[in-house]
Amino acid sequence: MIRNIYYELLDKTESTTDIILRFEDTGINKEQYAFLKDRLENFRLIIDGEYSITPNTRYDESKKNLFIEIILSISDILKPKDFQLEQIVNDHSYRFIRFYERNIQLFNSKK
User: Fold this and answer.
1) Residue 36 C-alpha from the chain's centroid
2) Long-range contact list for 42-45, CB < 8 A, 24+ apart?
3) 100 close to 23: Cβ distance less than 8 angstroms
4) Where are the beta strands (DSSP E) in 1-111?
5) pLDDT less than 50: residues of the chain
6) Which residues, other chains included, contact 57 with Cβ-Cβ below 8 Å and sequence gap of 6+?
7) SS3 65
8) What is this structure's pTM?
């Protein structure tokens, strides 16, 4: 089962506020990883147009652990107040977890 490890604000280098969301899932085999990595690109399609995301995955085959990082970039023009950032993180973390779990179910139903 996937879990949210943590999130952090990245150092400001451009005209965006970047937040990295990190997730981990254990017990993922190589076939599941390949399927999920391909499906991760679809997650971009369900994100609000005012945000952009950059997904990154790392798979440890010997331990069967999958690590997913999602960088959520928010234009400074649209930057919310600090108290709203936590809500944005929670919303997108929850949205990603639901997306991920649906895709695990899809993979399992195809077997």
Assistant:
1) 12
2) 42/99, 43/70, 43/96, 43/99
3) yes
4) 3-9, 16-26, 51-60, 65-75
5) none
6) 33, 36, 37, 40, 66, 67, 68, 69
7) strand
8) 0.84
